[in-house]
Amino acid sequence: MRYKTIIFIFALMFLTLTIFLFKMQVLEYQKYRSFIDSLMQKTRLVQGTRGTIYDRNGIKLAWSTKVPYISYNKNLDISELSSYLSSDQIDKLITSGKVELTIEQLHELEKLGYDIYYKEIRNYAPHIFHVVGYVNSNNVGSYGIEKTYESILRGKFGSELLLISPSGKIKQKILKIQPENGSDIYLTIDYTLQEYISKEIKNYENPGAVIVEDVKNGEILALVSYPEIEKQLNLVNTYEWRKILNDPTKPLINRATLGLYSPGSAIKPLIAIAGLIYEKTDSLDVNCSGKFVYKSSSGKILGTYNDWLLSGHGETNLIKAIRVSCNVYFYNLALNLGIDKIKSVAELFKIDKKTGIDIPEVEGLFPDKNWKEQKYNEPWYPGDTIITGIGQGYISLTPIELLNFYVTIANRGRTPVPHLLKNTNVKYSNNVNLPEEIWNKIIQGLKEVTSVGGDLKNRGTAYNVFKDFKYSIAGKTGTAEVENGKLPHSWFVGFAPADNPKYAIIVLFENGGGGSEKAAPFAKKIFEFLLKGSETNG
Fold first, then answer.
1. What is the separation, in whole angstroms, between the first and last Cα of the chain?
2. Which CATH class is domain 191-537?
3. Residue 451 half-sphere exposure, CB side, CA atoms within 13 Å?
4. Is the pLDDT of residue 34 over 60?
5. CB neighbours of residue 498 within 10 Å
6. Superfamily name and number for 44-73+91-186
7. CA distance 267 to 342
């Protein structure tokens, strides 16, 4: 009898449990589904940390930190948490839904089984925004190097299995797939140089751009666009973001690769090369009186074009024309050549084409007859050719494109692709085959810009800037006229040492006046910084 009673009790208990499980898992499955699932397990994706971006010398330019935080849910034991979190943290947890933790709090709460999350924060060195760029709220590269090399930098996802108790605490973590951190990369940037230029350029009121390139291999040692974003974008609030967007100086734009400008007299070596290819320029000496009068075949004056030196430069050949930047010489030369020949040389150097640099850039414009016809439905006039000869009119180039042209001259025809990712392979985008005599004359003219003195009509346009300089510089000033009565853009572009080039530099100051006023003195500072450093390292 007793044996039957025991069997009955066990049968009843089993029946009751079966009915309860049937009710919970079948009849009321939807009601208890989330409870059952959470009671058993939870799978969570875990992303590897984004790779670090270094300069050429191992200085961190962009790096990630993981910030621990706890999120609010109804299972949290607030009274228990109050023993480990401050009252402000508790308030923030309840009101905003999550709160950051200190390292000490992290360890204590993990011991108790609380579910800890991690937010990856991207950090950036100052003065590098226009090169490195930034990531969006999901830590995806959205601009600059961060975007270009997103696939290399981004960490790969792993996953972990969490066993969770009914109270919401983690009982066990089982790593299913190991996350992979993104790869680190090294840039060609010399951060010491980048920082020096960025701080010095703040002494000027004019927006501008500066690029320093290694002539031999195309490595970009510094790329500065001013003004810059001085605060990390991931720390900018809505008000600050609107302020940045509405800033008339447009600090978001990378002027070095996205800004389009008239090159002014910095284009004259291209016109000179066209003359040496197509004309007997030795017999094209010009007596510059300070103005060029363009007449029709019947002798009617169709236009008068002034030189920057109204008193004129007197007898001028090609090398002197480069040295003193004689407008009248290049008015004559451009008109004799015609726009088709000039355009063909521009195409030879790919002067208005993207350089291939590994951050966003835009294509420039070197106009011709077909372009004007399509753009304005107007014919190309001789006056268009005349002003093209001095870098005015429709020409618009980015600083990186104009620098690329001078790097080609420095290398006597070879053009390494400018790049920011450090690697050992040098790639070339162009090889311009010209007689050595042409390169010699152009480079001689550029050297005389900085080295030949004398009176105003004979001395180089940057002589007063470089006359006491220890190093030999080949370069060209540029003064690009703009509309609305504003001061012209100030340019200097050149390379050094002149006879064995290592560095090429371009400096642009918007509305900075003449090229010898602001751009050339600033370039001198950078050359001095670079070449002194070369002596020290050499």
1. 106
2. alpha beta
3. 16
4. no
5. 19
6. Penicillin-binding protein 2a (Domain 2) (3.90.1310.10)
7. 11
